[in-house]
Amino acid sequence: MMPDSVLDLDAVSIAFNGNLALDGLSLRLQPGEVYALLGPNGAGKTTTLNLILGFLSPDRGSITIDGIDGVANPIGARTRIAYLPETVMLHPALTAIENLEYFALLAGRRIDAGTARGLLADAGLQGEAHDRRAAGFSKGMRQKVGVAIALAKDARLLLLDEPTSGLDAGAANDLSQVIRAASARGIAVLMATHDLFRVKHVAHRLGILRGGVLVDERDAATIGPVELEQLYLEKLAA
Ligand SMILES: Nc1ncnc2c1ncn2[C@@H]1O[C@H](COP(=O)(O)OP(=O)(O)OP(=O)(O)O)[C@@H](O)[C@H]1O
Ligand SMILES: [Mg+2]
User: Fold this and answer.
1) Is the N or the C terminus of the chain less surrounded, counting Cβ atoms within 10 Å?
2) CB of residue 41 inside a 6 A radius of ligand 1
3) Residue with CA closest to ligand 1 atom 17
4) Coiled coil: which residue ranges (predicted)?
5) For residue 17, which ligand has an atom nearest its CA?
6) CA 70 to CA 90: how far, in whole Å?
7) What was the pLDDT predicted at 169?
8) Could you give phi then psi for residue 228, rounded to 5 degrees?
9) Ligand 1 mean position to 138 CA, how many Å?
10) Quick one: 3 exposed, middle or buried, by C-beta within 10 A (0-12, 13-18, 19+)?
11) What residue ranges define each of the domains in the chain, with the CATH number in brackets?
12) Using CA positions, which residue lies closest to atom 30 of ligand 1?
């Protein structure tokens, strides 16, 4: 692998009950790169994220995260990864600041309230929410706290699974900004998404997964939104 890549999947395959969910998937992300994994239901997007997180083990191939072998050492590799699930779980009784301090501590980082405030601001959470209990937080606000946790943890790789599903346009736009901010700090971002409309504004590279095979990959800058939708439909029909 290239020495500076944050994520390197090489010819990864995994089957469930004899059915291949991923078939020879290779992916490489450089620091700060934002990669969007597109594909229909069942294409293998979440499986890819679960493999990177070490929750699944590949039948074949290798997974390297920031130089760490993710198959041999999933716990070590996970220290370099922040994961935003569809619903970021926060402690409802704790404020945003307290949640951040708590989850940072779980990741082995002790941060003070001032640092927490700065990270929440960097993640785009409005100041008036910093001292509010998380119980009333919207999905978008939870994600911002999730990103702040990723920043506190000093993760090298941020994984997001369908982050814009269920977000209104404003919150989805906020999330794009937050992803760009993480990218500007050198964090590589891999997101699984169905959002063809928004993906071009945030991703540097797009990959289309179908039946566990990467059937297309290209620079986001080289394709317009209408072309992307056409390409996507073509690739699914092919
Ligand atoms: N733990 C599991 N046990 C058995 N089969 C699984 C398991 N996880 C995933 N699969 C199968 O692997 C394939 C890929 O599923 P995956 O969840 O990765 O798709 P996806 O691209 O995330 O789809 P969606 O867009 O619906 O979230 C599917 O056929 C799914 O049924
Ligand atoms: Mg999925």
Assistant:
1) C
2) yes
3) 46
4) none
5) 1
6) 26
7) 87
8) -65, -45
9) 27
10) exposed
11) 7-80+156-237 (3.40.50.300), 91-154 (no CATH)
12) 42
**Quick check: CB of 18 below 6 Å from ligand 1?**
no
Return the SS3 of 17.
coil
By most ligand atoms within 8 Å of CB, the mutation choice from 12, 25, 38, 45 for ligand 1 is 45
Tell which residue, 189, 180, 186, 205, has the closest CA to residue 84: 189
Q: How far apart are CA 212 and CA 149, in angstroms?
A: 31
What is the C-alpha separation between 196 and 224, in angstroms, rounded?
Answer: 11
**21 Cβ inside 6 Å of ligand 1:** yes
Per the structure block, which two tokens stand in for 135?
């119980």
Question: 58 — phi, psi (to 5°)?
Answer: -70, 150
pLDDT block averages, 10 residues each, the chain of length 238: 82 97 98 96 96 97 97 95 88 97 92 95 94 93 91 93 86 88 93 89 95 95 88 87
* Residue 200: predicted pLDDT: 84
Q: Take residue 32 and report the two structure tokens written for it.
A: 């700060």
What is the pLDDT, as a whole number, of residue 162? 87
Determine whether the shortest distance from the Cβ of 141 to ligand 1 is under 6 A.
no
| Amino acid at site 111 | I
